[in-house]
Amino acid sequence: MSTVAMPTPDAGIIARKDQIVAALAAVLPDDAVIFDPEETRAYECDALTAYRCPPLAVVLPRTTEEVAAAMRICHDMRVPVIPRGAGTSLAGGALPTADSVVIGTMRLREILEIDTDNRFIRVQTGVTNLSVSAELEPLGFFYAPDPSSQLACTIAGNIGMNSGGAHCLKYGVTTNNLLGVRIVMADGEIVDLGGPTLGTGGLDILGLICGSEGQLGIVTEATLRILPRPEGARPMLIGFDSAEVAGECVARIIRSGLIPVAIEYMDDVCLRAVESFARAGYPDCPAVLIVEVEGSAQEIADQTARIRAIADELNPVEFRASRNEDESLAIWKGRKSAFGAMGRLGDYLCLDGTVPVSKLPHTLRRIGELSREHGLEVANVFHAGDGNMHPLILFNANKPGDLERAEAFGADILRLCVDVGGCLTGEHGVGIEKRDLMTSQYSAVDMAIQLEIKSALDPCWLLNPAKVFPLEVSQPHRERAASC
Q1: CATH number of 233-339
Q2: Measured between alpha carbons, how far is 305 from 50 in angstroms, rounded to an integer?
Q3: Distance CA 397, CA 308 (A)
Q4: Smallest Cα–Cα separation from 160: which of 202, 120, 200, 213?
Q5: Angle 92-98-101 (CA atoms, 0-180°, nearest 5)?
Q6: DSSP assignment, residue 125?
Q7: Which of 227, 252, 459, 463 is most buried (CB neighbours < 10 A)?
Q8: Do residues 227 and 294 touch, judged by C-beta distance below 8 A?
């Protein structure tokens, strides 16, 4: 297994594997339970592939009722459960333990209801992010959150990690576009929260569920806010001769009161990889911004002129506004393929700390200094408009000690994000990657409140164990839960 500290697997549960599998098979369809070691290996990790552990078994339900049946079995037999969407988590959020059962949502693929009059779509949460907008496109609507992995990632994972994407600057992240959920709790109870309208009364439990990383239940259905497609959109490509100046341009655009639909950043390391891979026609310079505006033709022209004036004050290397759909696709092509292109350079860790936009120039400069201190190259590609950074730390996974160096470098970057007034994660979640850094952001009182909420909704601590909370902090709660 991984070198990440995890609780010792319960040998008693592992010894009861046949009994647990038989109990699950008794209430689920024949093809819903996977327990052969060669087949469960496919679920041994998520996109944080440095850490792996095959689970005891995997359950792939097709309905909420099947999820609930599996959860009741696991609760009654005190078996840990790992909720899993598409496995695109970059923080180890779906890493199993050897004594756990993975419950995946990828077979929950139905579009249940579309209501354009009231602007919502209701789906099962195994539906991919991109397919939601594809379903809406003929109707003139779209779903705003658009993570880079939207081709593969599912709504379940988006809710678990409160995902965003390039266009979250204007439209918000998942929590701003989530109206309601159907969730299966730790004991198998099915609960409906929220609904098709905004502002339902009572406590905001829905807001608590979104971003909870599978700690509180498994979301099987979601009601999502949908929006009319804009009349038009135009991206701009702006090149600068330094990362700090590009960061300053972002800060000035935001200070001006303009709200572009997206502001994306790529540095020279990323640009070289992207240009070699995608041939997007980007300029050869230290930093590039992609700024997109939308609206009527007049609104687009006005916003473009204002952004051009702001950029000109900082002497850009190049300013290129799209003139047609082909040019728009070319500008976005490189950014959309950035993470895949970077993989051609070698192994990398992808972080996602968030900083105030005004701190971008300082943060980028300091990341460069840390890169030299740790002796590892870093590429920066991120959602600059809301300060959601994605430093990509390059390392050699086959070189002993290199992964540990990269993780130490990453920890320094994330602590830097907190120190300048930001936070540990913007959309990837905490998982195991940032678990031991939680005390850098939260006080003992903050952590205690979070732990009590977890214990209230999952008294036996069976859901996604060993994630989010530092093990030494959660140990008293896990010990109490052992006797439940």
Answers
A1: 3.30.70.3450
A2: 46
A3: 43
A4: 213
A5: 80
A6: T
A7: 463
A8: no
Torsion sign (Cα): 437, 438, 442, 445 = negative
DSSP state of 463: B
> What is the maximum alpha-carbon separation in the chain?
70
Angle at 193 between CA 190 and CA 194, to 5 degrees: 155
How far is residue 94's CA from residue 255's CA, in Å, rounded to a whole number? 38
Query: Is the pTM above the cut of 0.90?
Result: yes
Give the C-alpha separation, 100 to 36, whole Å: 14
Q: Give CATH for domain 11-104.
A: 3.30.43.10
Q: Do residues 303 and 295 lie in contact, with contact meaning Cβ atoms separated by under 8 Å?
A: yes
Sequence spans of domains, the chain: 11-104, 111-228, 233-339, 346-435, 442-481
Say what angle helices 243-255 and 360-374 make with each other, to 10 degrees. 160
56 and 99 Cβ atoms separated by less than 8 Å: yes
For 406-439, write each residue's pLDDT tens digit.
Answer: 999 999 999 999 999 999 998 899 999 999 999 9
In single-letter form, the type of residue at position 444 comes to A
Task: Specify whether the CB–CB gap between 45 and 97 falls below 8 A.
Answer: no
pLDDT of residue 343: 87
- Domain 111-228 bears CATH identifier 3.30.465.10: yes
State percent of the chain over pLDDT 90.
Answer: 82
Q: Are 362 and 413 in contact (CB under 8 A)?
A: no
Can you tell me whether residue 290 is helix, strand or coil? strand
Domains 111-228 and 346-435 share a fold: no
Strand stretches in 3-56, DSSP E: 33-34
Q: Supply 459's token pair.
A: 């008294």
Dist. CA 157–CA 160, nearest whole Å:
5
